[in-house]
Specification:
2Fe-2S (chains A, B, C); 346 residues; homotrimer; iron ion binding (chains A, B, C); alpha+beta; Cholesterol_7-desaturase (chains A, B, C); seven-stranded antiparallel β-sheet; Naphthalene 1,2-dioxygenase Alpha Subunit, Chain A, domain 1; ARHD_Rieske_2Fe_2S (chains A, B, C); 18 strands; 2 domains; iron (chains A, B, C)
């Protein structure tokens, strides 16, 4: 299923304002996220100990989340702070979840709180790096989060699902290679002297480069557990060293994919792009975000229908071809984590 | 769950015309209500004995409800009266339900018909009383009917759910008292010298009284089984005796709540207000009805989300605070009725 | 339930273009239909052997259906034809289904392919006959396909469900007769000297006949297994021999009903009308199609609500009156087929 003793992206910072909480299921746990007066985000079980109302329908007051039904004020630690005309000391606590906010993302640890270590939150080159411009969005998709990992670790699907934007026949035809380094899975593919597809033509133009010249193109997919897929993508004018070409003749980005299980068959998909060119141009950020949003939306129907097919036929063995190696290896890492977690629990 | 051997409000009179029946589930029983030529309302199982079609898709003819599929004419007693070109004597009967109509409401008895006694239908001061003006509506809500009883027997929720209309901080802060007299549960709260909230300011103005003067306010919730909650509410210009003040200096009403189980987790909520001022002013009735409708709609999301939380966690014990005493005592009465009913059955 | 070793109408020819496949469940089997370069329609399981994606989201290339996820090209025989950069010889096959296309309809055999014999596809007088003009449509209905057979083999429902178009009191009052000839069930009803109902008045006018004269009317319902109901309907100016009257004084048609199970409680309803007058007038075809579509849509709510009632009360015995004889006898034929099929399987 999914590891619990790990950090997941739960929200983007702007989703949690200073007065209204955010209700969201993470790993099948209903959580209410709220921003305390101190500015810190807290996460508690979305269940008022008084009468079971969802706390996410309430409002923030100081460091507490006030239930919108009868006014119980819940602390960020899951203990009732106060309630009008009530002594609350004996009230049962609800679960609270370790939260960490950094660089626009809110991370949550749905497992044993005692094991939550902020140092375990992954660092990425682009995250909080002023050399990069970032834009992104959130999709809710009705499929097992691992189908999205498969999707992203096998980009041959671009040729079919995204044939009008980033797909091109050469992806299909270029061999890809997968290697594993500890818990890190890398699948890479390089294409040389090809025509840039529409999305990359746009990126070249935006970057002040000609869009009609042959390019070298690369896709380097990095999986790190539990479910982060960062993809180095880009094109360089052909013959300048491709991936290693100087910035002046290429357009390069990280595709950002934080994949957070909601239930066994649904997920929150935080997608985005961190580009290494014109990082401080907000119009460019918006333009790319809009383009990427349309392209990434093309996967939704496929993934949800694939999930339906698999749910109807749990007995079927799927093929594991060379192009699937990235997903297969990523699932092996997840399975190791799950086994370790069950060992811990047992 | 819910008692069956009792009267519930099934419909408002105008919902059952002279030609079209009304299909409605009451206590998980599908019923077709129709108005016979005599003017009397009858209720039969919504299941044609011919081929199982819902009789509520048919039409009324004389004292029968004609099935809209093949023309079987069903009597109000659940016996087939006729069918074109058929001898119907041997047709199996379907269930019929005792019905009583009075003062604009249609009551139904979903239990053993032999025990249905019209004298058991509760009488209320305002019901059919020309000194009162009445207006109301119907909401369908996806929650156990008892969650609505809890809601109405603990009006501290007004401070939170209805903060812009009838809620105010003083409700929360004023202690309430609950007492039980046989099957009758009463929770009352009195506030003195407070500012009238917006809804009551409107009522004072409509009643020709100033809306900016301190008032005494009262809420006296009466539960009677199986699920009727009548609430005496009002404000009087402060210092005139509050609840006991003369009519000339107050605005007072009964909040009317007939709560009828549809299934274990859904209900029909017949809400209304019977006011003791300007009883014959139809514009005022409509104005109040519209205002009340908006306020009472604010409870729906809370109740349905509370139900989802409780359904997901049936093992959780909820708190029973002093403010919950009204609901707790009301549920005790219901439980007594249920136990008695099972004794009868056994 | 439903026989599998038989032909069902799966689609109308125009639903399956030359580039896009059609996904449809037939007898609870998800199928992807596609038109090969040769023009032939093929049907395969809607499940890509690579990763379980629905093939019906793909596109046609030559004689294959290309999966829209990663480009696997599936042959009409359920064997993978090719995939970019892959050796596909060892890929597991998926199911394929015998298909036959004729006169605008695509038939499919969901059972054992070895038993599929095109000679078993029924022939109807009107099918592919230039003396007839045909128009029709498709409705998806949430009920057991046998409820639609019952519906069509007992046209007394027209008096009630279709009271404004083809229904009239005389249907109800005229006795019907049912006879069985092998697997063929016939229910017929004749009415003499009656007023034509609105639909038939229109047909008379369109046929150049007066619409205000008494007519003789007939309805001859033919059931053939598994679920085809063809109904001879028409009116003739009274006293000319009714059903046997010469063409010049009558308006006569076949009502066409191909009923295809989707699941145990849903079906595809291919309805239409094959008329024996002005067969080549496309405006007339469209006018009749539109009228019939509205009339036949009136059955949907009744059938779906009937199904809900029956699903809630599987223990209830329904009545089997003389008017139900057509449906009862048709179900006996189906039951015989089902028993024979299970014998074959066992």
């Amino acid at each position: 299923m999914y590891p619990l003793n790990t950090w997941y992206v739960a929200a983007r910072s702007h989703e949690i304002g200073s007065t209204r909480p955010l209700g969201r299921h993470i790993c099948n746990k209903p959580m209410a996220f709220f921003r305390q007066a101190s500015g810190q985000v807290a996460a508690v079980e979305d269940f008022c100990p008084h009468r079971g109302a969802p706390l996410s329908l309430g409002f923030v007051q100081g460091d507490t989340l006030v239930c919108g039904y009868h006014g119980l004020a819940m602390g960020g630690d899951g203990k009732t702070a106060s309630m009008p005309c009530q002594r609350v000391r004996g009230f049962p606590a609800i679960a609270s979840y370790p939260v960490h906010e950094a660089h626009g993302f809110v991370w949550v640890w749905p497992g044993h709180p005692s094991q939550a270590d902020v140092a375990l939150i992954p660092q990425f080159e682009w995250l909080g790096n002023p050399a990069f411009g970032y834009g992104g969005g959130l999709y809710h998709i009705g499929c097992d989060y691992r189908l999205m990992i498969d999707n992203l670790m096998d980009l041959t699907h671009e040729t079919y699902v995204h044939s009008n934007s980033i797909g091109q026949k050469e992806i299909d035809e270029a061999p890809c290679q997968t290697r594993v380094a500890g818990d890190h899975v890398i699948t890479e593919r390089y294409m040389e002297g090809i025509e840039a597809p529409p999305f990359w033509q746009m990126a070249l133009r935006l970057n002040g480069l000609p869009d009609d010249r042959p390019v070298d193109r690369w896709q380097i997919c990095h999986f790190t557990p539990p479910s982060h897929v960062m993809i180095e993508v880009g094109v360089a004018l052909a013959g300048n060293g491709g991936y290693h070409a100087p910035d002046a003749v290429k357009a390069a980005s990280w595709v950002v994919d934080f994949i957070t299980p909601e239930t066994a068959t649904s997920m929150h998909y935080f997608w985005g792009m961190a580009r290494r060119f014109k990082p401080t141009d907000p119009e460019l950020t918006e333009k790319i975000r809009e383009g990427q949003g349309k392209i990434f939306a093309e996967d939704l129907e496929m993934l949800e229908r694939q999930q339906k097919n698999l749910s109807a036929h749990p007995e079927r063995k799927l093929l594991m071809l060379n192009i699937d190696a990235g997903g297969v290896q990523s699932r092996k890492v997840i399975d190791r984590w799950l086994a370790a977690e069950q060992g811990v629990v047992a």
